[in-house]
Each structure stands twice: as structure tokens, then as C-alpha cells.
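Researcher: Quick test of sequence recovery. C-alpha cells follow.
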């Protein structure tokens, strides 16, 4: 496991495409927005941000509600 706390995961059509880990939540949230802009047009794209220290899913795109 990476020593960084905040984990971004990009999947397309249910398969992992890209991962990223950051120490700063603010940086991870900026990257989250950036990935949506860069990769949001992939088939069935999904981006999730998880706090690895607590196991909490912080946000996901597209929104599941």
C-alpha cells in the first residue's frame, strides 16, 4: 500500500485505468476534478476519492445519488 493517505481511482467500463495517491486532501480533490475533465469521456468512466487511513469514500463521479 502506498504511504500516501488519499487515493484516487479511475475506472472505465468497470476496469481500473489509473491510480493516484496524495498526502494532501486538497491536492487529491484538485486532481479528482482534473481527472473528470481529462477522462470523463471514457466509456462508463468513474472516479473515486478514498481516505485510505479511515477507509471512507469521500466522493465519487458521477454522483451515485
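Model:
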Amino acid at each position: 500500500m502506498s504511504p500516501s493517505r488519499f487515493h484516487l481511482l479511475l475506472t472505465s467500463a468497470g476496469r481500473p485505468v489509473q491510480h493516484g495517491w496524495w498526502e494532501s486532501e486538497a491536492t487529491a480533490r484538485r486532481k479528482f476534478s482534473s481527472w473528470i475533465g481529462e477522462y470523463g469521456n471514457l466509456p462508463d468512466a468513474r472516479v473515486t476519492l478514498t481516505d485510505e487511513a479511515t477507509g471512507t469514500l469521500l466522493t465519487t463521479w458521477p454522483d451515485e445519488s
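The longest strand covers residues 15-22.
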